[in-house]
Amino acid sequence: MEDLPLIKTRRKGKNVMQSMLIPSETMVADELRAPRPGHLADIAEVRRALASKYEADACCPVTAQRDLVRISQDDSAPFWRVVDPDRPFARRMAGGPDRIREKLAAER
Prior knowledge:
3 strands; alpha+beta; 4 helices
């Protein structure tokens, strides 16, 4: 069963409102399977794809990052395809940058 999207309306700037998707861990994990093996994508691409898929203006970056950390701990989806091992965020993943590099090398 697919998770129902949670979309909240929030202020963006002084006079503009936007719809913000609060993704579930399952939604993020499903989207992580989209990049081809061995290809390093970007979490921003995943967030844009999720927002588009659920017809929201944006996808919550904090929730997406939190979900990525949990996914790395469970090893339930290929998180290494969207986390650059040379960026500080990679240290928050289970196994850190070295594990991400190993996983990417194994897919090439």
